[in-house]
Amino acid sequence: TANGQSPITFAIASQETEDVHVSECPCFIVSGNGRGLSAEKMWCHIKE
């Protein structure tokens, strides 16, 4: 971890139903001075 900081874990929880399929998504890392992703863009990546 950078500068001795603890890692941050993100999770999205859902329940599978007849109309909703639940699958695992790859993890992502936010670090450094990068611009990062908005919630909308992150959701688009998850849906892909």
Structure description:
It contains 1 helix and no strands. The chain has one helix at residues 39-47. It has one domain (1-48). The protein starts with 38 loop residues before the first helix and ends with a helix. 19% of the residues lie in helices and 0% in strands. By secondary structure, it is mainly α.
Sum up the structure in keywords.
mainly alpha, 1 helix, 19% helix
Give the helix level as a range of percent.
Answer: 10-25%
- β-sheet strand percentage: under 5%
The main β sheet shows up as: none
Number of helices, counting only DSSP H or I runs of 4 residues or more: 1
**Structural class of the secondary structure composition?**
mainly alpha
In short:
With 48 residues, this protein is an all-alpha fold. 19% of the residues lie in helices and 0% in strands.
Chart the SSEs and their pairings.
Blueprint: H1 39-47
